[in-house]
Amino acid sequence: MDNELTALGVIFTEFYYWLTVVIMFLIHVGFCMYEVGASRHKNHMHTLMKNTMLIPLVTITFFFFGWWIYFAFPNGPGIIGGLVEAPHAVAWSPVMGAHMGGADDLENGWARINGVFWAAFLLFSWTAASIVSGSVIERIKSSAFWILAVAIGSVFWIIDAAWGWHADGWMVQLLGYHDAYASGVIHAIAGGFALGILVNLGPRIGKFAPDGKPHNLNPRNPWLVTIGLFMIYTGFWGFYVACNIPMWDIQEGDGVFFSATNIYLGPTTLSAITFNFLMSLAGGLLMGYMISKGDAFWTYSSGLAGIIAASAGNDLYHPIQAMIIAGLGVIFMYKMHYWVERTFKVDDAVGAVAVHGYAGVFGVVIAGFMLWGYPSSPNTEYAAINPLGQIIGAIIMFGVLGFLPGWIISKILKSAGALRIPREVELAGLDVGAIHRYIADEQDVINAERQEVGKLGR
Amino acid sequence: MSTGSFENWAGTITDIGPIYPFVGSEFLLFIIGVVFWIVWHIWQTKHENRIYEEEKSKYGGVESLKKIVGAETPENP
């Protein structure tokens, strides 16, 4: 920070990530609106609080241990090596706070960007937990959900990030895993985790007829749902930009060439991801409208699913490729949603397993074919991108780190009677007590006003 | 006297390093934070279960539920 050019680079990077965090906040405004709009009136407040409170819980736990996991676990540990030392990321490090940079390299390197980089990852953590939140509405205990939210938001997704979304993650090194904008590392894992919970949680009362035929529990407030999804699209811009490193010397050997890079330090540009974000959104919306025959809920959701289906390779695709991949991903996730619902009687209240899980898996796998032979990293010793590596990667994301932990933790909670709300409360509605209190409060005020009117008449 | 590790901004800024108060207490703060987090979960779980028990006893009877269920329709949310 002792000359203007270096300081400009550092402060630009600091500001860059800070801005992405602010934009990504809109994802969570959107998730809250979306979930409340999708839930029935009798569950609105509970649904809102269930989503809102994951924010502080995932924040503090990501500070306590999530950030450290990212830097400590790229080798597994135990797959290609042991734990990696990460003194800048432990909760008691001096650079995990206001810091001017110090004499040693650790402090100089991390003092200015540690907080904004942590926050950018944290907003991904909220997203992972929020994805799960929507699918389990109207019957999960908040206490259970918040334990699960910490598990996905501050443990499992960040393990997968260390493995497959890190310049030196073992999946990148051995499998050539490539997932630039997190089709797998956020969406597939969160979808898989949600599915694992749903298996144990069971459907909402009334979702399935005695003969197994599914009933539609349609959104109670379509406006809130659609505006919420618009907010999520908006926040997704910040998500994409946060996945990049804004300025890095990518020139191998002699010479210097500064560019934006993806998380693996491979070159891309903001223009590339802007083209592809919009074209994959468009492809998803167009196909969603077609396949759902103009249903607003599925059309909006398909816009999101389209982006997710193209995200693994959206640093490199041609925009029209991104559009086509998005459309195909939407067909896959839509068909899968109804097949799983009919076959296994799974009640995914907002289609989160489909939009994030199935579209995410599709995105990871298709990138293996589309980018077959591309370098996964500037490090020439790492495996190249390939279909098998991506298929194994998708299984790890959706199944090993997603479905399995979600199923195990929710099974333990279920065994302890701590997963699902009492049947009577589900029937009456989670807000039944609050609604009656509000009515009584309102009546008190009306009575007071009537007394005042009576005084005027005297 | 200062709760920080410095009393003015003179000299080389990089010598200062952390600028929050009570430098050296970070690990203790971490322990306090983790305890607060765990206690919060325990309190919240008990609180939530108590609310459900109250609501079950107040509104969980068959007659009460008959009045509540069906009161909400798409036209009258």
Walk me through the structure:
- The complex is a heterodimer of chains A (458) and B (77).
- Chain A is an all-alpha fold and 458 residues long.
- Chain A has one domain (4-247, 257-421): Ammonium transporter fold (Orthogonal Bundle).
- Helix content of chain A is 66%, strand content 2%.
- Chain A has a two-stranded antiparallel ribbon.
- In chain A, a hairpin with an 8-residue loop joins strand 1 (245-249) and strand 2 (258-261).
- In chain A, helix 11 crosses helix 12 (319-344).
- The radius of gyration of chain A is 23 Å and the shape is globular.
- The model of chain A has no long low-confidence stretch (mean pLDDT 95).
- Chain B is mostly helical and 77 residues long.
- Chain B is 53% helix and 0% strand.
- Chain B contains two helices and no strands.
- The relative contact order of chain B is 0.06.
- Classes of the chains: A mainly alpha (458), B mainly alpha (77).
- Chains A and B meet through helix 3, helix 6, helix 15 and helix 16 of A and helix 1 and helix 2 of B.
